[in-house]
Amino acid sequence: MRKDIFDLAGYASDIGFTVVLGTNGVLLREAEAKRMRQSGIQGASISLDSVDAARHDAFRRLPGSWDAAVRAPASDLLLLLWNRRGPEALQVFGDEQLLADWQAPRPA
Q1: Residue 108 lies in a domain
Q2: Domain-embedded: residue 98
Q3: Structurally, how many domains does the chain consist of?
């Protein structure tokens, strides 16, 4: 990860971009989620390679990575967990108001 990722996110947010971060979620914990939110990152997308933990871990070649991804903290961020199965496999975690704000139409 870039050492200046939070500075870049803050700049993008300051000039009006909606900032989200793609991650495997393995290292995403409460402290990182708070720092992301403070820097203007509004959400994180965590890709699951399978809805089956063993298949996901085998694909990632990282035992425990599925569990780490699905337990990523959601208190400060909107987290989207998705895979190639599409919307039926989509799970949304996080504050309902944050989700509503994120889905709201943006002014032109």
Answers
A1: no
A2: yes
A3: 1
81 token code pair:
């967990």
Amino acid at position 68, single letter: A
pTM, two decimal places: 0.61
The one-letter amino acid code at 26 reads V
Tens place of pLDDT for every residue, the chain, 108 residues? 789 999 999 999 999 999 988 888 888 888 888 888 899 998 887 777 777 789 889 999 999 998 888 776 654 555 555 555 544 444 554 445 545 554 555 555
Q: Which two tokens stand for residue 76?
A: 């400060």
Give the domain range for residue 30: 5-9+17-103
DSSP assignment of 2-30 equals -TTHHHHHHHHHHTT--EEEEE-STT--H
**Is the residue at 80 inside a domain?**
yes
The residues, ordered by sequence, that sit 6+ positions from 90 with a Cβ below 8 Å of its Cβ are 80, 81, 82
